[in-house]
Specification:
Layout (H helix, E strand, L loop, with lengths): L9 E3 L2 E3 L6 E17 L2 E13 L8 E12 L3 E4 L6 E10 L2 E4 L1 E4 L2 E12 L4 E23 L8
Antiparallel strand pairs: 1-2, 3-4, 3-7, 3-9, 4-5, 5-11, 6-11, 7-8, 7-10, 10-11
């Protein structure tokens, strides 16, 4: 565990954000690929080639870096519906619902939720997949590969 001095902090999806580059991480659904959906007992594991935002501020909003990394979403007592037979699919967008919170096109990391959870994914040509379960755990797997540096969005005051 690393210790550091207190600094300005933001909140993003309940995740307390820190002031060090690469400490704040979010998965962007758009620009990611759903590679496969696997069963593991009563769990459902969605495997993604994910676009990962890293920033000292709010990932995907404030300046930072973009990376590619394998990402797993494990749904307890999971089930899938929609165009599952079309996997793998390049994703255009989607959202995660967990309790009373919705994350549009981003998944803050770390992300672990106990209780009903769902991700709705949209691909090209009307492809639509819904994964849901009684809880969800997100894990980044392996080494990240650097893609790019990005500047703050036009309105970074949101």
């Amino acid at each position: 565990m690393r210790c550091r001095a207190a600094a300005q902090r933001w909140s993003f999806g309940g995740q307390q954000l820190r002031d060090r580059v690469d400490d704040n991480v979010a998965i962007e659904i758009h620009d990611s690929t759903l590679e496969c959906i696997e069963s593991d007992g009563d769990a459902l594991v969605a495997v993604f080639s994910a676009y990962v935002h890293r920033s000292s501020g709010r990932p995907g909003i404030d300046a930072g870096t973009g990376w590619s990394q394998t990402f797993h979403l494990r749904f307890r007592r999971g089930r899938a519906s929609g165009n599952v037979d079309m996997v793998p699919i390049e994703l255009l967008g989607g959202h995660v619902d967990a309790s009373n919170e919705r994350f549009e096109n981003v998944i803050p990391m770390p992300f672990n939720h106990v209780g009903p959870a769902m991700i709705e994914l949209h691909g090209w040509n009307g492809i639509h997949i819904v994964l849901e379960g009684e809880g969800v755990e997100a894990t980044l797997i392996g080494e990240a590969r650097y893609i790019e540096t990005f500047s703050a969005s036009e309105d970074s005051t949101k």
